[in-house]
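Q: What does the assembled structure look like for these inputs?
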Amino acid sequence: MFGAGGGTSSYREVEETDLVILWGSNARETHPIFFHHLLRGVRRGARLYAVDPRRTSSAAWADTWLGIDVGSDIALANAIGREIIAAGLENRAFVERATSGFDAYRAKVDSYTLAYAERETGVPAERIRELAHAYATAPRAMICWTLGITEHHNGVDNVLALISLALLTGHVGRYGSGLNPLRGQNNVQGGGDMGALPDRLPGFQHVEQDALRTPFDEAWGVTVPPKRGKHLSAMFDAMEHGELTALYVIGENPVQSEADQGKAIRLLSGLDHLVVQDIFLTPTAQLADVVLPAAAAWAETEGTVTNSERRVQRVRKALEPPGQARDDLAIIFELARRLGAEWGEPSAEAVWDELRRLSPVHAGMSYPRLEAAGGLQWPCYDETHPGELFLHSRLWEDPVPGNRAPFVPVDHDPPVDRLDADFPIRLTTGRRLDSYNTGVQSGGYRSPLRRGESLDLSPEDVARHRLADGERVRVVSRRGAVETPVRTDPSLRPGLAFMTLHFQDDVATNLLTIDATDPKSGTAEFKATAIRIEKLGETRRRGAAAAAGTTLAREP
Amino acid sequence: MSSEIAHIFSEPPARSTRIPGPPPVPAPAEVELTIDGSLVSVPAGSTILDACRARSIEIPTLCFLENLTPVNACRVCVVEVAGARTLVPACSRRVESGMDVQTASERVRHSRRLVLELLASSVDLSTAPGVAEMLDAYGADPARFGPAAPPAPAGERDAHQPGHHHASDGASAATVAQPVTVDNDLYIRDYAKCILCYKCVEACGVDAQNTFAIAVAGRGFDAHISTEYATPLPASACVYCGNCIGVCPTGALMFRSEHEMRAAGTWDEAAQARTDTICPYCGVGCTLTLHVQEGTIVKVTSPLDASITEGHLCVKGRFGFTFMGRGGTTAGDGA
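A:
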């Protein structure tokens, strides 16, 4: 945030903070070892607030659970901001010294009264008030979030609303206070840091900033295109318009991971040329013209990954890749050679050293230092720099070096897939403890916890639909339908349903989800689908569902 | 977002003039004490064990682990403190100014020897690393209590009520021998190898996982580790993080795959390479130590000194590696 794309704090700080807001994150199951650190904080007396539509296993540890309606996060955040200002609890000195745009923010949140927020979010006004006062008055406080914040059509705005709360209270840039997105994949942070974002070069340097781009032109002897590229969702739009006709997919399974799966399969199948580089013959790879079998980057190659506390750590080769599988680097070098660029076969360390020359925040992280220190946290500007435990400490200097941190006021905008009489139930998605994403990695081990896919419903909804636990039902959205067993889940409230994306071969949840995407991040609104539940054998509406072009999942 | 603000977000943030760090903590005062006749100085708050290890004085431990709260259960780390009526556990006793500690007196050695004999006569320590060396070092003779009593049938020890244990007739040595509990695909519980060190209970509880699937049940010689009502693990609160396996000092808790390889005679620790890497799942960044035998990952642990895990993992990190397949080639072996 504020130009640095990473969580601001270190895990050790959550052990010593006074208050944690876990917002749209079931870290107990999705980031279990981070949750160990968080629980140590709770046991030392930190108060935990969980903001989540579900009363998750994380929320079970909270002092207070705010059961928010899906997609009303900004209404809640703005109401918290308004209450903090109304009670005079904002950190006036911090706001004046280190931020900009406070007046516009105050004007924006003025209409977000507690009564309005209670109506929009479903959270009692008193709970909102309690959270606002507790957060503002805590000596140290953190907000941690996950995909419950970002997998919305306005996910970036959601994040901005949370950032504003930290700016309002000064809960950023200090030990134990910060803003922390918990990253969902072992190197999603590192991938972004290395420039695998459409508008960034390695080191999170913006491609449209001439001064940041020029060193790359010089180092590589080419002219780097000065305009940002397309994020994943924009690529699918471009496929739809015939603008993008060839695709090279590395380590992704969009056939099963994209929202609105029917559409994703149609577009990927319509490409002139599809290349897939993966460690598995995924359903996406099965559509490919060329499959490049890759080594598993965590155990069959050397390299680095970067975690949610910005720590760059070494991955090491324990196994030789099977068969014809090759290191991603070797594949890229061979492609380059065939395209006429002879890069030789530099080692992972040599590639990393090139990165260090071009990315100031990684400059000090030599392989020997990474080995000796057990990883280093960026920014690490030179070989004497220890790395930064937390970001934005400059905001507490007087005067503040560089730009002030801007408030960016945002408005509540409910989910795109509206609830109505035909689609009255809100389906949200997420992970379970023992499984992971589309299941290609986690499907193989024999977890005693695994039960397969189900439509999880509140006891009230199970009763209201006259269903029995385990009964198979048809779940219908405006885009598709699947059949799956029902499971009663007391952590859900009436009107809220839950499914995962873990068992896509059996139940293709993404046939249901909507590809409404955030224009800035390109992330789809996986968290908010409108569905209805049909008992099998009931013919009512089946014709309508078929007319909508549904594809039924195969039986498990 | 206005273009002015977009500009701020696209520029690298200015550097802080100071490197951010934790609030300063005052260095603890030094405490002077005598260990085995030598005057030593260590930070206040250290344990006797810390003080001894800092001076390379060997103290055996079984129930102690750096990442768990000391429970003083096994008593093999006892030392003699001048003026104290009883021997004290070095793992938890804090140093005090002027303390006079003997780590190898005859009283200490005798006590450790007896503890080891009692443990080794009643528990199968065949897979407990380092214990055979301890028995040798203290001249322990576990056989002196007579031949081992016959093993208990499955479930019998779980059913004992407190107070129902009867003293042995002296002709044979009472044991905790019983069949291995195999009730899930990921790990086994061989309580014939359990020394009741409490480590698994602590790792499952407040020291790490906070799941509380297991506890110590029963009293006296019938005390044992149990799920609630001795229910099988799949019916318990267990989430299969395997952190109990990670801390078990005797091999009583073991990957099911290791248990089966040992039974088949194919477990070969000497042939295993260990490589530290980072877990392939979520973005927390846990260090995994992959134990690889003949091109197959056969076990996953995490180093106790890894700042993120402190040795603890979740079910995916510990068990979710089978997608890598079996029977490949260990890195560096003839590829």
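Chain A touches chain B through 89 residues (CB under 8 Å).
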